[in-house]
Design a protein that fits this description.
about 160 residues, Jelly Rolls, about 0% helix
């Protein structure tokens, strides 16, 4: 007899155009929820315009969250810090002692696109949780979050 693993709940979304506004600290990546590929009922995503996009509601479960971001900065000294947070930017994932940060640094050329940077974490929530990829700080000038930046959220089944 063949063992068949159940399908995992998952959501995939990406920027279909460069995000060129809402690029300051406390803003979040506006993954276009209208283009989200969702399997199962444990994950939903908001869609609309601007900061309405890109908030994922996770129902109680354990998830693997992977985000890939490419940014355009204006100088080699520019830096952007992003973090996975709740929808209000308060709760840090996984917690304040082991919170993964993603620091994106400018390059020697001006107005260059960063390589694709990755942020990955396993996260368990006991209650519904609004997830976003939040900009924590910007040093210098962030011109845009580029097309092709993406997020994949998968339920972990043990």
């Amino acid at each position: 007899m063949t063992n068949i693993r159940p399908l995992r709940n998952r959501a995939f979304s990406m920027l279909t155009s460069t995000q060129s506004s809402n690029l300051a600290a406390t803003d979040h990546v506006e993954f276009d929820g209208s283009d989200a590929d969702i399997l199962g009922a444990l994950i939903t995503v908001t869609s609309g315009a601007g900061q309405t996009n890109g908030i994922f509601t996770l129902q109680p479960a354990t998830y693997k969250i992977t985000a890939h971001l490419a940014l355009t900065l204006t100088a080699a000294t520019d830096q952007v810090v992003v973090r996975l947070t709740d929808g209000a930017g308060v709760a840090l994932i996984p917690d304040s002692t082991g919170d993964p940060l993603l620091l994106i640094q400018g390059m020697a050329d001006t107005a260059v696109t960063s390589p694709l940077y990755s942020l990955e974490v396993i996260f368990t929530t006991a209650s519904a949780f609004a997830l976003e990829v939040r900009i924590i700080s910007v040093t210098g000038t962030l011109v845009g979050i580029n097309t092709g930046s993406e997020i994949l959220i998968e339920q972990v089944i043990t």
